[in-house]
Amino acid sequence: MASNRSGRTNTHLHSKEDGRKTEGSASSRTFGLLALPFRSRFDRILVDAPCSGTGTLARNPEIKYRLKAADLAAYQARQVAILRNALPLLAPGGRLVYSTCSLEREENEAVIAKFPGAWQTGMRLPGREAGDGFFFAVLTC
Q: Under a CB-based contact definition with an 8 Å cutoff, are residues 103 and 129 in contact?
């Protein structure tokens, strides 16, 4: 799921069984609070969650002035809700990738810790590597 500055969240799901790719969009303000409208399970799910964007501070320095501590809790609640609704759609043997362009523990490790499983995680830190910072976690069922 990808979130852009317009407040829309896009979902990207892929089913190996029939080669079908499904995409959709919803307002990031309500997305995650409602169950996803799919009846089948998917082999691959990407959750590119709406986040604070702290990994993009070099390109978006205004983030440090507008971001408040309470915002992290709100982002985390939305991220947890999105994962809670996405995980039941993961087919056995499938892979879910959770990613944010945030470097905040509250939006990354604390979110995936709420869901049991053998998550593989990684992070790119700006200044050490070229480009923006981001976090990812991969769960294979």
A: no
CA 28, distance to chain mean position in Å, is: 11
Per-residue pLDDT of 13-46, as tens digits, reads: 555 555 555 554 444 445 566 777 888 999 999 9
Active site includes 101? yes
- CATH number, residue 105: 3.40.50.150
CA angle (77, 99, 9) in 5-degree steps:
65
Domains in the chain, number: 1
Per DSSP, 129 falls in state B
Whether the full predicted model's pTM is greater than 0.85, yes or no, is no
* Sequence-distant (≥ 6) Cβ neighbours of residue 119 within 8 angstroms: 112, 137, 138, 139
From 89, 96, 101, 137, the catalytic residue: 101
Q: Which domain holds residue 126?
A: 2-140
Span 49-63, mean pLDDT?
96
